[in-house]
Give the backbone structure.
Amino acid sequence: MKLKELSDQLTGKTIEERLETLATVFKGKIIFTTSFGIEDQVITHKIFTNNLDIKVITLDTGRLFPETYEVFSDTILKYKKKINVYFPDYLSVEELVTEKGPYSFFDSRENREECCKIRKVIPLSRALAGMECWISGIRASQSDNRANMSDLEYDTDKKLFKFHPLFDWTFEDVENYIKEHNIPYNALHDKGYLSIGCEPCTRAVLKGQDFRSGRWWWENDGPKECGCHLK
Ligand code: SF4
């Protein structure tokens, strides 16, 4: 299917209708990846409450915040649905930590990317294998890198369509939706954490600071991305 053809099928529809269309077009080959961030919780709510046939998965890097596991638990309890968990290859993690210690990512961008590759990018590739459509919680205003994307894309490297249902939403839109629908969310959001990843690599940001500036805050150059959404 061509990008234009798919885009035409989604035009004029609500987010729920778009997700439903994609679930039909890519039956059995459509996946949503959640890190339990506030945007992801909106999408999870839409998928689960509409019983959409979309596989929901998460990547457990082994370095997540306790608060992230709490929202994971609250979510499966509330919706009574399964979220498939993907762990990194244990041999690779053992080798990494044995050779370089538990905080190698602070030493260089190369080391940071190595850890993200082992704990996130490779497990994500495993989850995406055989999939034809990938749903994510990316919003345009999260970063300059993300503003250059569009809500529906074809990823030529991963060879699948990517759809970001909340692409045009503001952070306030997301917060309002979460409150209106009483959706569980990560308690860290109320403590100044906007974008939440692994515990050692995430910190709170001050009002007005860039949305992703709390991620890998010690790095001053290059995109604030783990590699999952880089082409
Ligand atoms: Fe490793 Fe930090 Fe990347 Fe998590 S965010 S995978 S701990 S470098």
In short: The first helix runs from residue 3 to 10. The chain has one domain: 3-187.
